[in-house]
Amino acid sequence: MASKLTNKAAFFKQTPALGWLLTGLVIAGLEMAVGKPLARFLGIGKIPALFGFLIIFKKPSLQFPFIFNDLGIIAGVIVYDILIYLLPLVLVTWLTYRLTNRVAGVLYRKSALLSVLLHILLLYLVLRLWTDISTYRELVTRLTMIAVIVTLSLNVINGYMGEFSTSHPGFMAVGAYVSSVFTMALFTQSDYFGPARLPASLAPVFFPIALILGGAVAAFSALAVAIPSFRTRGDYLAIISLAYMFIVKSLFENLEVVGGPRGLGGQPDLASFPVIFVWMALGIWIINNFVRSTLGKALNAVRDDELAADAMTVNTRKTKMTAFLFGAFWAGLAGGLLAHVLRYINPGSFGLQKLAEVLAMVYFGGLNSVLGSIVGAVSINLLGEALRPLELYKWIVIPVILILVMIYRPTGLIAFREFDLVEIVKPKEIKEGDDATA
Q: What is the total count of domains within the chain?
């Protein structure tokens, strides 16, 4: 019986990336078309923001036995997820996996680059349609894409370089404040910087400059950690980088010109969904190319055996400093995006809690893996949002999950795996004799 079910479900393994994206488009379109009336019919009231988890965990009864107050609403959420997500997922992939394999094969043979670009465009359309249903979804998705950039940048240091850095919240703070000062001083009227110096219509043109400037200043400030740390071996980087994070936090708390402990608000609304998606795609592409380059291979050699790498003429100190500054740049850029999504920052946002979140995403997803960083950032962010109604209990559930992962998967969910977009967009092989209806 089990083997029959396995054979019937074999099409899941043979569905190419193009097929999954097509399924995502169908699901997003279906939810836009019938989501509201279906939710009202099932007694939910509105379309579930995150697959219904926020509704399920909204008012749990904490008395023994642990039950939820409104089982009818929970049943409605489950039925909604089955009708909107699960059934279309199964049906569309089953009906189209052969067709999408043929189309993916034609695209791949014609041009691998064209195929990759088409897949990226389809991913954007899926996310855009899904987030258009709810402003909350859009905000969570934008924050998750920023988290992907931060996680990748830290994985360069903690994973590929093999050191343990705790300075990333500091780099994010530097990038957030520098980019905020740049855009606010030029394009907004505020009590801190006076009248706008340029018309607001030019702000989207200058925004990339603000982000790059924030990243560059963060990378420059990283020299304060890299120069003393990489003259030594051992755990000194963890100690010095932690001190750097506290110094940066204290610095901004005492700088009244940028609001001090009250924070800085009023940034122009420039970090839209398309802008963040483009920066995330660029970040994944550039960081992936970096870790697969000659310098990235040298970085792995330094991580595995620094003495042996030095003996093989690898400039270990230069290699580590380059990687460290590279990671700091992307962390600063992500901080600039975060500041313009929230349109408010304060030094308290870049402390130990932010450090714990970023480290959790890196080690949950997997070290030395671009794909693992993406999975870790998406998983931890969505899990944190889904469990938000539990308030304090959320910080019991998430650590328990992390502990279990560290016990059974010490290197993370997807560790030491290369990320090759060309391989991802290839069609899957379909064995003769498999069931098909397409």
A: 2
H helical segments located in 305-350: 306-311, 316-342
- What tens digit of pLDDT does each residue of 6-35 get? 455 677 788 999 999 999 999 999 999 999
CA nearest to 284, candidates 207, 377, 210, 356: 377
User: Considering the domain boundaries, does residue 430 fall inside one?
Assistant: no
Same domain, 51 and 119: yes
Q: How far is residue 355's CA from residue 366's CA, in Å, rounded to a whole number? A: 17
Q: Please answer whether residues 145 and 272 qualify as being in contact, where contact means their C-beta atoms are separated by less than 8 angstroms.
A: no
pLDDT of 436: 39
253 shares its domain with 329: yes
- pLDDT confidence tier of residue 431, bands split at 50, 70 and 90: very low
195 three-class SS: coil
pLDDT one-digit tens code per residue, 64-92 = 444 444 677 888 889 999 999 999 999 99
Find out whether 364 and 379 touch, Cβ atoms under 8 Å: yes
What b/e sequence results for 320-355 when a residue is b if at least 16 CB atoms lie within 10 Å of its CB, and e otherwise?
bbbbbbbbbbbbbbbbbbbbbbbeebbbebbeeebb
Flag whether 437 is in a domain. no
Please count the other Cβ atoms lying within 10 Å of the Cβ belonging to residue 117: 14
Global pTM exceeds 0.70 = yes
CATH code where residue 232 lies: 1.10.3470
Structural domain boundaries enclosing 375: 136-422
Amino acid at the residue 121: L
- Burial annotation 412-425 (CB, 10 A radius, 16+ → b, else e): bbbbeeebebeeeb
